[in-house]
Amino acid sequence: MEELITKIVEKFRIFWKNYIFQSFLAALTMFLVLLFLSLEHAVIIASIGATAFIVFAMPKNVTAKPRNVVGGHLVGLISGSLCALIPHPSFSAAVIYSFAVGLSIFIMVATDTEHPPASGTALGVAITGFSVNVAIAVIASAIVLSLVHYFLKPYLKDLV
To answer: Is residue 20 part of a domain?
Structure first.
């Protein structure tokens, strides 16, 4: 246990500036998202938060690539929107919501745009239904995160 603590402290000592900088960028991104979405869209907000984690804590990961971030959230938005159109009485809602997640995974894998948090976007849109505000917030968030990732990639370190 003591060895693990020593290792963590040493890593923090080396990368503390990156920890602070990258965590600040993630917090700023979430602030902007929260300006556009209300808490009724909690699942979608959580998926964008998970994307911020991937982009800023794991920037070298394949799922942090702009193609995956933007493509994945577009797939999630479309999958959730399509499933929201399916009429469903309350007892079958879980089937439709689950299908939205499965559909988003299938399309992301088939199109090589894998981004795990985007399945949360599909779930959130299936639950709340499509709205222009949600679509704008999801797309804008994915684009902003991807642009920040693209331009700051030389300064971002994998923190995990």
So the answer is: yes
Residue range of the domain that includes 28: 2-155
- Is the dihedral angle over the CA atoms 72, 75, 76, 77 positive or is it negative? positive
**Structure confidence by residue, pLDDT tens digits, 92-115:** 899 999 999 999 999 999 999 999
The total number of structural domains in the chain stands at 1
Does pTM surpass 0.85?
A: yes
Task: Measure the CA–CA gap between 131 and 38, rounded to whole angstroms.
Answer: 12
Q: Residue type at 18?
A: N
Interval 46-80: pLDDT, tens: 999 999 999 999 999 999 999 999 999 999 999 99
Q: Whose CA is closest to 113, among 60, 62, 58, 77?
A: 62
Contact 123, 101 (CB under 8 A): yes
Flag whether 71 is in a domain.
yes
Q: For 29-49, give one letter per residue: b (16+ CB within 10 A) or e.
A: bbeebeeebeeebebbbebbb
Task: Judge whether 73 and 115 are in contact, CB under 8 Å.
Answer: yes
Q: Any idea which residue has 């911020």 for tokens?
A: 52
